[in-house]
Design brief:
Structural class: mainly alpha
Order of helices and strands: HHEHHHHHHHEHHHHHHHHH
Number of domains: 3
Largest sheet: 2 strands, antiparallel
Helix content: over 70%
Strand order of the largest sheet: 1-2
Distance between the termini: 30 Å
Mean pLDDT: 91
Radius of gyration: 21 Å
Low-confidence stretches: none
Oligomer: single chain
Number of strands: 2
Number of helices: 18
Strand content: under 5%
Length: about 425
């Protein structure tokens, strides 16, 4: 008992240090550099106190050890969604006590998802397939898929930083000109198939599989220039090393230590290079933009009509209609047009803000409940499986939740293919 209390105290200490650094970077680097995007700092003791309580109080119950894939997703949402949403929104929107119920429900969502740590697994019958046959099937699919992609995109070189947004717009046009399966396959290869080859190559020391996955990700980056594709390989390899080091049981405080090291390393590197490269494409995009978009989504959809998923296949199936007078193809494009004055820009946001845009607070609750059961299902599929494989196979689809809706993550970013692959892949005999 005394050991658990000490570990909880240490977690709160590291969390407090991380929050202090997060606020310092926001105040001294993000706001002065990117105020034109809407970042604002409003100094206030009361505001800082509210932010501190909301950000640190979940550390009183969140799991101390990450030993299930669902818990990695939970902590990812805490770092890349919840903390930015609270810190940035309370400054951008000038929120103070009593704060809107939306942020209380985000707090409650973390509490509800934390019960995954103690939930028993449900038994799911496994399909019996030989790993060699399944692997050759995936390699065949990879070959045919990239033949299709090269036919659509052509052969391209690596884009420079100045070309990234132009390449993305071109990729969007190419994908929209193809059938719907083309776009799904591109994302499934990026988030599931190529990462699976990387994971299996590392796990079994099959360097040809590792090379296949790496080449596949490089090709995808030449097609669409998405930053997640670029960082996916170091992200997966870093997680692999961490899981091997800690034998599939990652102490939560290590995430705070790693995040602090990442922040300080990025700031130091930018200072030495006299640039804002890592501040712009690392810290700002991953840790602060989700908070800014949360503020904008809350600000707009608290006052105007919600979408009820009318822009999705589910909404159309239930006969939902788009808000009157709106021509944007989705909430993200509407926010991009209103707050960033860019009708072609999709200000895609995390699962909870998207739920709020579609159904308000009930949408946040619905998305949280659905995520809970999906994570429980994945945990059950991973039971007695290769723990490292189970963690890493869901790493990219889980990260997608930080900047897209749950429905999009399921259909587009590979949640369903990842669960199917884990279900079909044989459990190692030594487990």
């Amino acid at each position: 008992m005394r050991k658990l209390l000490w570990e909880r105290f240490c977690l709160l200490g590291w969390g407090g240090g991380y929050l202090a650094l997060f606020l310092w970077v926001y105040t001294h680097r993000i706001v002065p550099t990117f105020s034109y995007q809407g970042f604002v700092y409003r100094p206030s003791f009361l505001r800082t106190l509210i932010i501190t309580i909301l950000v640190l109080s979940p550390l009183l119950w969140m799991p101390l050890t990450i030993n299930r894939p669902s818990l990695l997703t939970l902590w990812m949402l805490y770092f890349a969604v919840y903390t930015p949403a609270v810190v940035v929104s309370f400054h951008v929107l000038n929120l103070a006590l009593p704060f809107p119920a939306f942020f209380g429900w985000l707090w409650a969502s973390l509490l509800f998802l934390s019960f995954l740590a103690v939930l028993p697994y449900v038994r799911i019958p496994k399909i019996r397939l030989a790993s060699d046959k399944l692997l050759w099937g995936l390699i065949t699919l990879w070959t045919m898929g990239y033949g299709l992609f090269f036919h659509g995109f052509g052969f391209r070189g690596l884009p420079s930083l100045q070309q990234i947004y132009k390449v993305r717009l071109t990729a969007r046009e190419v994908i929209s000109s193809q059938n719907r399966l083309f776009g799904y396959l591109l994302r499934w290869f990026t988030d599931v198939v190529n990462p699976f080859f990387v994971i299996l190559g590392l796990r079994r020391r099959r360097w040809e599989l590792l090379l296949l996955g790496l080449i596949g990700q490089i090709f995808v980056f030449t097609f669409d220039a998405t930053k997640t594709t670029l960082v996916s390989v170091p992200y997966l390899i870093g997680l692999y090393v961490l899981l091997r080091w800690k034998r599939g049981r990652i102490p939560a405080k290590l995430l705070f230590q790693g995040s602090i090291a990442f922040f300080l390393g990025a700031l130091t590197t930018d200072h030495l290079l006299r640039s804002n490269l890592l501040l712009t494409y690392g810290l700002r995009r991953v840790f602060y933009v989700p908070g800014l978009l949360t503020a904008y989504y809350f600000d707009y959809f608290s006052s105007y009509s919600q979408w009820h998923w009318a822009h999705t296949i589910i909404g159309r199936f239930f006969g939902a209609r788009l808000p009157s007078g709106v021509s944007a193809p989705g909430p993200g494009f509407l926010i991009g047009e209103i707050y960033f004055r860019n009708p072609a820009g999709n200000a895609n946001v995390h699962l909870w803000a998207d739920g709020f845009a579609n159904m308000g607070i009930p949408g946040v609750l619905l998305i949280t409940i659905l995520l809970f059961f999906l994570l429980w299902l994945y945990d059950s599929l991973s039971y007695r499986h290769d723990r490292i494989l189970s963690f890493l196979l869901m790493a990219m689809p889980a990260f997608a939740l930080t900047n897209t809706s749950l429905l999009t993550a399921l259909l587009t970013h590979g949640w369903i293919p990842a669960m199917m692959l884990l279900w079909m892949w044989p459990i190692p005999r030594e487990v």
